[in-house]
Design a protein that fits this description.
single chain, 462 residues, mainly alpha, MetI-like fold, 3 domains, 2 strands, 2% strand
Length: 462
């Protein structure tokens, strides 16, 4: 039995438990159309029955998903001869990978030792037995707890309180998972960054003016100097993001003001969806557009004025990226502008202000927290963009203030450093985690600044 099949059956049992729980309330009340004697509405009793039908079974299913592969692998390896059990860590990992390839039917694993083939067969047999046992255990637990709650349904039972406590626990669990995931991501990047800084000083990374992460692996091998100065990479990131925001923020904000304050309902119904389509275009399409249309146009235009324009430039990537993030600014700004109370507009008009004065002095300040949030979201999207930069701005880490030259960004360098087979024990690879930590700190600072602006204006207009 597959996992999806087990979950579908469990969902069906939960639906049946819900209906039976409601039906018991009607049967105990004596009148099918009335349930005033009970503490809670019938739906809560049905929901409580369904929850206890699902949760214990899901716990067993989760235990199987997390630990089944480890347990089955250990049992299968115990069937191997002693010569294949006392291996080094690397040899043991290779043996486990070959076993898993055989179990999954991988083509490259056909010419494996017959002993390992027999272990894979036993693994598959134990897996089938385990799935059958899993199904029996899940459905037995579901039936037991559903019947237990079903028999305990009484008029004095506070089903609504129980359901609300369960919902609170689920919400708390989701919050804890989100927090732990964030902490795990930060710590994983931090630990690898500390390993990098054991090879390269922090000052050389933060203030170095040369970026050349290629290193010679042996003394007789040609290679670059291994310079890890992040200033050129960070400067390219800020340049492209700044150009993108210089395009997206004015256009997006003015579009939002027009749609919310000036445009009629008919224009708004078709203009806003068309503008939001820009957010659904794949970034690789924007990259093609930047590389094949915008970059050649900028180069040809620069030659007309006698400028030296690179075929890959920060200006081309920034302009196209700005077009891509316009919906992030316009859509959110339009929503928050529409959320400004009409009483504030009427009060401004009553004092003799014009429509433009009302927008500039009343509506925009009142909606500024939401507008700042939209701009921050657009900035984060621009900073994290990779495909457009690769195709339109290139991979050259040039420290320049000229937007007509090729530059690179932090995310592009991270992808470049981690492509292919890598060993995470050299500065060349570990520097990717240091760049990720640096990018995290930069975005955190932007969030703190935006939060300060939001709190300041929210206090004034609440």
């Amino acid at each position: 039995m597959s996992s999806s099949f087990l979950l579908i059956i469990l969902l069906g049992m939960a639906s049946l438990a819900y209906m039976q729980g409601k039906r018991r309330v009607f049967s105990l009340s004596g009148v099918k159309s009335s349930s005033e004697k009970f503490h809670s509405r019938p739906g809560y009793y049905g929901m409580l029955t369904a929850v206890w039908c699902v949760f214990p079974a899901l716990l067993i299913f989760g235990f199987w998903v997390v630990f089944s592969e480890t347990i089955l692998t250990a049992l299968a390896l115990k069937t191997l001869p002693p010569s294949l059990q006392n291996l080094t860590a690397g040899q043991s990992n290779l043996l486990v990978n070959n076993l898993h390839n055989l179990v999954s039917g991988h083509v490259a694993a056909r010419d494996i030792d017959p002993v390992l083939q027999q272990a894979a067969i036993q693994y598959q047999g134990m897996e089938q037995i385990g799935r059958i046992a899993l199904g029996v255990a899940m459905f037995s637990m579901a039936l037991f707890f559903a019947f237990f709650v079903y028999r305990r349904i009484r008029p004095e039972m506070r089903a609504r309180n129980h359901v609300e406590k369960i919902v609170q626990l689920v919400l708390l669990l989701c919050s804890v998972i989100a927090i732990l995931t964030t902490i795990g991501i930060v710590l994983s990047v931090l630990f690898e960054s500390i390993r990098f800084f054991q090879h390269v000083p922090v000052t050389d990374f933060l203030f170095g003016m040369k970026w050349s992460p290629q290193m010679a692996m042996r003394a007789d091998q040609a290679g670059s100097s291994g310079s890890f100065g992040a200033v050129p990479v960070l400067a390219g990131t800020f340049m492209i993001s700044g150009i993108a925001l210089a395009v997206a923020v004015p256009i997006g904000l003015m579009s939002a003001i027009y749609l919310s304050e000036y445009a009629g309902r008919r224009v708004r119904t078709w203009a806003k969806p068309i503008m939001e389509i820009l957010a659904g275009v794949p970034t690789v399409v924007y990259g093609f557009f930047a590389a094949l249309v915008v970059a050649p146009f900028i180069r040809d235009s620069g030659e007309v004025f006698g400028l030296n324009v690179s075929s890959e430039s920060a200006l081309a990537a920034g302009l196209v990226m700005g077009i891509m993030i316009i919906p992030f600014v316009s859509s959110l700004s339009d929503d928050v502008i529409n959320a400004v109370p009409q009483a504030m507009r009427d009060g401004s008009y009553g004092l003799g202000a014009t429509k433009s004065e009302t927008i500039l002095n009343v509506i925009i300040p009142a909606a500024l927290p939401g507008i700042v949030g939209g701009v921050l979201l657009a900035a984060s999207r621009a900073i994290g963009e990779t495909m457009i930069v690769v195709m339109a701005a290139g991979l050259s880490a040039n420290l320049t203030a000229n937007p007509l030259q090729a530059v690179t960004t932090v995310t592009v360098q991270i992808v470049t450093l981690l492509v292919g087979d890598q060993e995470f024990d050299s500065p060349k690879t570990l520097v990717a985690f240091a760049l990720g930590l640096l990018l995290f700190i930069v975005t955190l600072i932007l969030n703190v600044i935006a939060l300060h602006v939001v709190r300041k204006y929210r206090e004034e207009y609440e």
